[in-house]
Amino acid sequence: MYSQYKKSGLEWFGDIPNHWEVVSLKKNLENIIDYRGKTPTKVDSGIFLVTAKNIQNGSIQYEKSKEYVIPSEYSNIMSRGTPKIGDVLLTTEAPLGEVANVDCSDIALAQRIIKLRGNSKLNNYFLKYFLLSDAFTQYLNTFATGSTALGIKGSKISMLKIILPPFEEQKKIINFLNQKTAEIDALIADKERLIELLEEKRQAVITETITKGLDSNVKMKDSGVEWIGEVPEHWEVKKMKYLFNIKKRIEGLDNPQILSVTQKGIKVKDISTNEGQLAANYDKYQTVDPGDFVMNHMDLLTGFIDVSIFYGVTSPDYRVFKITNENYNKDYFLYYFQMCYYLRIFYKFGQGVASFGRWRLSTDEFNSFPIPIPSVKEQREIIEFINNNEEYSKDMIKDTKETINKLKEYRQSIIYEAVTGKIDVSDHDVPVESDPEEVSQ
C-alpha cells in the first residue's frame, strides 16, 4: 500500500494514492473516434475487419470472427482515423465494455467500436488495464442505455473520468500487470486444456465400452461395419428397423408442453418469453411420450438426440421413435446414438445442404443404420460402468471450472488493485525488453 490516500470522489474507485489524480478522460486523449455509421462491404479476403466479436479478454481474438473489407475502400472506411499499434479499442454494445490494444495497424474497425489514443500523460496500455477493471465496468454501466442490450456513445465515454498516476508509475503498473496476467492466463490455459482432455477421455471411455464391452479378454469378431470395427464374438449387429419403430402421432393437444432437443438434452420450451424460434401454432406437432427417443435428424452437425422424460409435443421435423424390446436398456442405445453425433458418424450418412444447416438422415439411412447389441445383462453392466465414469468426469470438470473462475476473479482483483492504487507495485522488479507503445511512436 501507499503511505497516504485521499478520496477519489467516485464510489467505484474508492480511495486513491495522495499523489494520483482523478481526471477527465477526454482531456487526456489525443483522439477518440466512434466508428458508428460506417458499414463497409464485406468480402472473403482483404483487410481484416475487427468487430466487437473479436475483442475479448483484453486482446483482439482474430479467430472469433473473420471478416474482411476491400483494400481499395480502406481509406474511405477509416476516414475518421486509422488505427495505430497501442491504440485502445472499446466495444460500445453487444458486448459493452470489452477492451484491447491494437497489435496490428493493418486492420479496419467496425461499428460498435470506439478507438482511444492517450496523450503524453496517459499510456495506452495503462488505459487498457484501467478500462478492464471491475471498477470502471461498474462506472461505465451507469452511463449505458438500452432495453435489450446496454450501449454507450463515444460522446458519453469522453465525459467519463479516470484515475491518472504519474506517467512513470503507469509504466510500472503496466509491467506488473503484464507479468501477473500472463502468469494467470497460463494457469487458466492449462486448466482449460485439462477440461478438453477430460472430455476427450470421457468420450473415449463411452466409445470403447459401447462398441467393445468391458471384458478386454473376450474373443472378438469383425462387425462388418468399418467405423465400428471388431465387437465381442457373442454380440449381434442389427439394423435400426429391427430395434425401433418410428412414431408420427399428431393429436392436436390443448396447451401442450413444447419439447425441444438441445445439446444438453430435451428441454421444455417456455413460449411465454417469445425467445428462440416459435411456431404460429402447434397443432401439427407430433406427440412425445416419456421413454421416446427424440432426434433432430434434420441437422446432423449441431443437432442431438435424447430420451424424453416428458409428455408433450415436438417439431414435426424431428424423428420420434420407440424401442421394440422393453427389456433393452434405453441408456445403452442413447449413449450409442449420442456417440454417433459427437464423432460425426451420422453426418457421414446425411444428405442435403450442410451450409444451410440442413444435413439430414433419411428414413432409409435411419432404418439401415447398424447397432452392436450386447446381451441385456451386459447392457446394464456397461451403463453402470459409464455412469460411474460420467460422475467422476463431471466432478473433475466441475472442480476445474471452479478453479478457472477463481483464477479469473483473482486476475480481475489484481487489475483493480493495481490501477486504483490499492497496492503499490513501484518496487516490483520486472525485466522489460521494450515498451510497445514507445516502439510504435
TrEMBL record:
GO terms for biological process: DNA restriction-modification system. Residues 177-208 form a coiled coil. The keyword Calcium does not apply. Signal peptide: none annotated. Residues 84-192, 232-405 form the Type I restriction modification DNA specificity domain. GO terms for molecular function: DNA binding. This is Type I restriction enzyme, S subunit. The lineage of its organism: Bacteria, Bacillati, Bacillota, Bacilli, Bacillales.
